[in-house]
Structure formats: C-alpha cells, structure tokens
Task: structure prediction
Amino acid sequence: MIEINGAGPAGLAAAIDIANSDYEVCVYEKQKEVGSRFAGSYQFMFIPGSNTDARFFLRTFLPNPILKKMFLVPIHTIKISTMSKTIEFYSIKPVFWTIKRGSSNDALDTALLNTAKSKGVKVKFGSTCDSPLIDATGGKIPKGIAREFIFDTDIDDVFHIIMDKRLAPGGYAYLCVINKKATLCVAVTKQMEKIVDYANECLQVFKEVYGLEMKNIHVQTNYVSFEIKDSYIDDSVCVGECAGLQDGLFGFGMWYAITSGQLAAQSLINDFDYDKSAKALFLPLLKTGRVNRYFYEFFETFFGNVFYNVLLDFSKRKKIKNLFKQLTEPSLIKLWIYDFIGD
Ligand SMILES: Cc1cc2nc3c(=O)[nH]c(=O)nc-3n(C[C@H](O)[C@H](O)[C@H](O)COP(=O)(O)OP(=O)(O)OC[C@H]3O[C@@H](n4cnc5c(N)ncnc54)[C@H](O)[C@@H]3O)c2cc1C
Result:
C-alpha cells in the first residue's frame, strides 16, 4: 500500500497516476473534506513558461464526465490598474482558465477526488499518516500572505488586477466576478502582519470603483510558499507546495502541484530518480520566478508606483497571453542572473 499525506492537487494527482498502474494507494487528509484551505475561491490555471491551453492539460488526467461537471471558465479580458491608469487587455485565446477550489461539486479538488476514487484510491479524512511515502501537505514556509473575500454580488463579470505599493506591497490585488460570484484577493510579500489592513483598503477601492454590494461573505487568509530546495526527497518524496513548488512572482502553483505529483508517481512506478527529474523540470522555471520577483521588489522599493506605471506602459504593446508566457519562461540571462542573486 502506497501512503500519501494531503488530498490537495499534488497528493490526489500522484494517487491517480499510481492507481492507474494497479498499485493500492491510500491518501490521508487531515481535514474533514478536500479543499478546506480555499473554500470556494477562484484560482487561475496557467502553465508557466508555456502557451498551452490549461484546459488541455486538465484533460490529460481528468475523465471527460468529471471535467464536464467542473467549473471551468476562460478569462479573455483582463483590466490592470496602477495608481494612475487602467488598461484593458483582450486575448482571443484564453489567458487563463478559472477553476474553483474547495469541496463543492464543481471544484477542482472534488474533480480530483472523484477521479481518484473511481480508480480505487482510498481516501481517509480527518487523519494523517506518520511515515507517508509521498508528502503533499501544502505550504510550509510563508513567503507571502493572501487574504480572500468570497461573496455573491450583482455586478457583471470582470477580472481586474491592481498593482499599487500602498495597497499590496510586493504583491497585487484582484477582483474576479463570474456569474455573480466573486473572489477578491489581496496578496503581499512585505509587511505581512498588516494583511488585514491592506485587504480592507483594497476592498474599499473595489467598492468605490464598482459600487460592490457583497452578500454571503466568506473571508480566509492563507500563507503562500515558494522556495528553491536543495532536495525534493527527505523522509518522504515531497510534491507540490510543501516542496516550495510555486511560481515566485504570480503564485501559480496548481500546475506545479499536479505535475510534481504525477512525476513522483511515475518515478515510483518506473523506478527513476524523482529528485533529479524534479530538478531538471522545475528548477529553470523556479529560478525564473525568483529573478522576476527580485526585480519586481527591487524596482518597487526604489521607484514605487512609478515602476508599476512603466511596467503597464511596457505591457500594453504586448499580447497579454504571450506576456505571461514570456515572463515565466526561463532564459539564459535570467538563469545567469539567478546565479548572482540566489534564493
Ligand atoms: C490565496 C491563494 C491564491 C492562489 N491562486 C492560485 C492561482 O490562481 N493559480 C495557481 O496555479 N495557484 C494558485 N495558488 C497556489 C495553489 O493554491 C497551490 O500551489 C496548490 O494548492 C498547492 O497544492 P498542494 O496539493 O501542494 O497543496 P494544498 O492545496 O495546500 O493541499 C494540501 C492538503 O494537505 C492537507 N494536509 C496538511 N497537512 C497534512 C497532514 N499532516 N496530513 C494529512 N493531510 C495534510 C491539507 O489539509 C490540504 O488539503 C494560490 C494560493 C493561494 C494561497
């Protein structure tokens, strides 16, 4: 029996692949249900450094009937604001796919759970394993903090990002409304202890811009973990956010979680070195994220909101989908800069 701790995307993706090869798998989840960390918030599927449509990625491991029940909505239009200007970007191809996290029937976590169960994976809720083969227990080292408001509202669909040092230092804020359901998220990497104040200020800004009426509000605060580890194996094989696998600038972590879970599973089934393969696949991307974050924080510290204006002016000449790809794509120069700045 192969034992895994954590029924998030990383643990369940690993379990699905292992069960596909007829091994017995048990996933231990310390909470009473999947997705408790996120409780209904929207997240955005994007494959770092790639133009691949994230929906195709999901299709490779979720069966069609399960995928069809999932909340999966493309984002074509993104508004980005700085202190003094707002620019609206449009892409014919989806920039991201919005998914829902949590335990509802249409959430990614439920889709993964149902897929795992359909393959015979045992999932034990409210429990943990003392010595799991795979550790998929989520973030450990707080590099940032995010506060989310999840609520019902009457306003039309929108995806609006704000970059402003006064509102979200070292991070950003966004409001995403789809079919009258909203997630407002404020993420900071500096002055993390003031997250509640920053979040409330951002909420006021969005309220003023959109005249937001909020109903059935749920608020949650989560740490964000990303780091570059020396090894992806300690007492267990480490996958997902507990291995620090997450984009250092934008916080995209779902692709890392699922892919590292699958890689760990394949390394057990086909007997290859997970640590070596994980490093080959993820390190260039993680280092790129680290360099992006270094410049983001450096320029914000020295030039404040002027930097965000310059960044937005630079971005408006680009195709938004390509921009996210190019920023997260490793290049020789970024890897070379990483060697100077380190983690
Ligand atoms: C506010 C916020 C917004 C985000 N937005 C995005 C986004 O838009 N796009 C994106 O790609 N990524 C996003 N991320 C990152 C993404 O959520 C994570 O990278 C992803 O959830 C990591 O998956 P995981 O399976 O490694 O960990 P988790 O999803 O955290 O799952 C870990 C599971 O392990 C369980 N667990 C913990 N300890 C134990 C234990 N001892 N025993 C058993 N079970 C245990 C937990 O209860 C949890 O269910 C966001 C993160 C945050 C905080």
